[in-house]
Amino acid sequence: MVSCAHMESTEPFLGTLCFALGGLCGALFAVPLRRVKGWSYESYWLIYAVAGMVGLPLVLSLVFVPDIGGVYSSVPGKVVARCVLFGMMWGVGGLTWGLMIRYLGIGLGLAIGCGICSSVGTLVPPIASGHAADLVKDAHAVLTLAGVIATLVGISFVGAAGHRKSRELTGEAARKAVADFDFKKGLWIAVFSGLMSAGMNFGLQGGIDIETAALASGTASRWRGLPVQSLVLGGGFLVNAAYCLAKGARQGSLGEFRGGGANWFFAALAGIIWAMSATMMKVGEPLMGEMRYISFAVIMSSTVFFSTLFGIFSGEWKGTSVKTKMFLAVGIIVLLAAFATISMGKAT
Hints:
Layout: H1 12-28, H2 41-64, H3 68-73, H4 77-128, H5 139-168, H6 172-177, H7 183-197, H8 199-205, H9 208-216, H10 226-251, H11 261-284, H12 295-313, H13 322-347
Helix pairs in contact: 1-11, 1-12, 1-13, 2-10, 2-11, 4-5, 4-7, 4-8, 4-10, 4-12, 5-12, 5-13, 12-13
């Protein structure tokens, strides 16, 4: 089967821009959740999951893929199952993503979680598929890989700034910035969540046969990844829905759905905003050609970049030392340089 990477011209700047926009969505998705009042975590997270993991992906696939059923039936069942199973792996990580932000805040939480998720999710797929040599096959690939590594360096600086922040802000000061701040608990959750969440990229990069079938059915190149996205996010939904319904039944919180119209709206809005992150990733990949594997790193680093800016403007870093702010500034600058390097590496 011919690789999709050879079927179109590349536009690395536009591809990187798509990934950056996806990162922006990933950074801001939790903002509407702050407007949810009186609902338990499992209640608003279930509405979030229905809207973001099933609703939007399904609508996009039905609109832009001419024969979605035919696409799935034309590929081996094991390919479909693999995407769903990796989605379930990611779903386990996704369950704790919200808790990570709850205990660490948007800036610090996403820096640690995305750093782990980015490194594992970006480098493992090409290595596991026997294409590790592609990472350094020529000067262009090496420059692109350098950009990917630079994103991890930038994320590390942001994470270091966050660690310093946790030592400098204690008690009431820490809780004023993040209401339930708990660095130790949040760190363990972030490590677990980051590792499991890498399953998303394993699934998204493991559906090349499905993308090829989508192209053959008449799907426009930029939308060819939508059927893969639907499977991966659908797998994640199974895990999230099972957890939320089980906990809701156990805690007696299922009755919360009878009211709170605004809560429905804000929880669903959060899910849709987040789902656009995965959508922009798949839309941007065709523009990157053989370097499509970098999409996850750019998405994750963009998420850290924008979430850090949001954390600054929302006061999460207020009261920290000049040295801590310097670590934060270096991280932001390195991330910006990494984005530029990735684009140059693919364009040269």
